[in-house]
Amino acid sequence: MLLVSNGTVITLGTGNQVIEDGAVLLEDNLIKAVGKRAELEAAYRPAAFLDARGGLIMPGLTNTHMHLYSTFARGMALKDLPPKTFGQILERLWWRLDKALNLEDIYYSALIPLLDCVKNGTTSILDHHASPHAVTGSLATIARAAKEVGMRSGLCYEVSDRDGLEIAREGIQENARFLEEVRKDDGGGLLSGTFGLHAAFTLGDATLKEAVEVAQSLAAGFHVHVAEGTEDVQTNLSRYGQRVVERLADRGVLGPKTLAVHCVHVNDQEIDLIRETGTMVIHNPESNMGNAVGYAPVLSMLRRGLLVGMGTDGYTTDMFEGIKVANILHKHAQGDPGAAWSEVPQMIFTNNSTIMGRFFSRPVGVLEPGAYADVIAVDYHPPTPLTRDNYYGHLLFGVSGGMVRHTIVNGRILMQDRELLAVDEEAVTRKARELAASLWERF
Prior knowledge:
The chain is α/β, with parallel strands linked by helices and 443 residues long. The protein has two domains: 2-60 and 363-420, Urease, subunit C, domain 1 (Roll); 61-356, Metal-dependent hydrolases (TIM Barrel). It has helices at 37-43, 86-100, 103-120, 138-149, 165-184, 205-217, 230-240, 244-250, 268-277, 285-290, 298-303, 319-334, 343-356, 391-398, 425-442, and strands at 2-10, 18-27, 30-36, 48-51, 56-59, 61-66, 122-127, 152-155, 191-193, 195-199, 222-226, 259-262, 280-283, 308-310, 375-378, 404-409, 412-416, 419-420. Strands 1, 2, 3, 4, 5, 15, 16, 17 and 18 form a nine-stranded mixed β-sheet that branches. It has a five-stranded parallel β-sheet with strand order 10-11-12-13-14. Helix 5 links the parallel strand 8 (152-155) and strand 9.
């Protein structure tokens, strides 16, 4: 057993508690007890001790839409004119990068952001992968990297027709194979899978039909970009006479196990369809701003009862940073300094936990008995009183990922006193630089 103590515990969850001088007891890969430090130390005296040094003790944060494969784009120069539209960003950057990846690149480009997640206190991710010239084995390769780091991960391959029907079918097979493998061995609760699709505008009806049939045979939901840019809307209207959400609903893609990512350009009727099908929406504020595609109407969606979580789309591994940006984005978009005050913590803390619960067998993102033992300690010493009623203000204005001291996933200490324990970061980054330089030449 491991006792994480000497800090202020913020349990999050629906019954959120703030416990001064609190502690969390871990046994194997689960949380056994949460309470006052003195009481837990007395009751479980043989337990090993991890000192939070008077900071915060919290659940690890969660990211419900990530692109690990994007790592080698960091610092890379494009070979075309700078993109002016979202479609050009895809064509000149991401669709050229993914075609240049091989399995070794995939492994190292996953290791780097996974290590960054650990350093920033993000302990669970749902990733969305693409590598058209290295499809088969790509998810197993990412799973190997996640296992080495110790990260809780839900993986999928994004099926698309943009590289031809043969590669699209290979992507369908890769999703199916990984889902079957994970059901046999989920790595002690660390691995899960979804069925990946790129987006409706790069998928013909024949590929969608085949993907839906395979996914249904495995009782799997989808992880798909939805109306991120206007290109998705325009293509579906011109080719199929339907808006994006309408077409995906008619083809059987939507449902309570499906992640509809972005949903920037959706109308009221589409929001109703998302709600009626129980589909989850994932908001990615930094990415949407960076790509200049607009902002998703998530405040309206939440008022109408949709389950909306938050991801980063590969833009960052620091979910504390994402909280800050989401807060500012919606205030600016609404012209209202009071906007999004309750909705952002609902997305990142409550809804992300609910979403993760659809892919993992135990609660994630909350400190309560029976939940997975994913815990972080943060070097934050509040200058004003911190209570159950104001904890979010402290996290929003006072905390960043670089303040995380300890990170524990599934009961395993991955970082202690800012030192990564599982992986030699210097060796990994050195090898990654070599591979990235070679990829840049092929790009």
